[in-house]
Specification:
The protein is an alpha/beta fold and 211 residues long. It contains 7 helices and 12 strands. β3 (44-48), α2 (56-66) and β4 (72-76) form a beta-alpha-beta unit.
């Protein structure tokens, strides 16, 4: 998942970039508003309100004209209700006040992207993944999954056609909890029993991909 960080405090921006990359996100930093309007390649934006030349509120409004579906989290020192109200009216999805714990930001990113990118159904051959209802159907029959099996399927479906690494799976499902890769293999094995043959492709020692 690609994160665009629009922040002109270079130390903060680079710190956030490093933290997100450690947690298996791709991150890019931009500090000048004129550079930001090609947003189609990003999955979420972190937007500071105090950028050079143009106010973040204006940039927020312009981004919304280009992509209604793009998750945007405002990161700012402004803690007044008027600023919050303006941002939400212009299309912000979340608002976090500086200084903040990077882990809190990470939790907000995960919660927001999980909610937004798991909203449309996905049909592949005889398989239907109902994200809103959190249900799996094979040949129009519901297949019951455990919570972790569902989250794993959701992650693979979000990244359909792409390799999802072991590290990304561990971070997405278990966060900071120490869990071995053997647990992933067990849940993948259970998912395979519920799905058609070759629906999940294994890259030995690296991760998995939904066909």
């Amino acid at each position: 998942m690609r994160v665009l960080i629009l922040e002109d405090d270079i130390l903060l921006a680079e710190s956030l970039k490093e933290y997100l990359e450690v947690n298996n996100f791709e991150a890019e930093v931009l500090s000048y508003p004129e550079e930001i309007y090609s947003v189609e390649h990003f999955d979420i934006i972190l937007l500071d309100l105090m950028l050079k030349d143009k106010k973040g509120e204006y940039i927020l409004k312009e981004i919304r004209k280009k992509r209604l579906d793009l998750p945007i989290i405002v990161i700012t020192a402004k803690n007044d209700m008027e600023s919050k109200e303006i941002c939400f009216e212009h299309g912000a999805d979340d608002y976090i006040v500086k200084p903040f714990d990077p882990k809190e930001l990470l939790l907000r990113i995960k919660a927001l992207t999980k909610r937004i990118y798991c909203c449309e159904n996905l049909r592949i051959d005889n398989v239907l993944i109902d994200f809103s209802g959190k249900k799996l159907y094979v040949d129009d029959l519901e297949v019951h999954l455990s919570r972790i099996e569902w989250e794993l399927l959701c992650l693979l479906a979000q990244n359909r056609g792409k390799l999802v690494t072991m590290d990304k799976i561990l971070s997405y499902i278990w966060g900071d909890k120490v869990v071995g890769t053997e647990s992933i293999r067990t849940y993948i094995k259970n998912l395979r029993k519920a799905l058609p043959d070759n629906f999940i492709v294994t890259y030995k020692g690296r991760g998995y991909k939904l066909k």
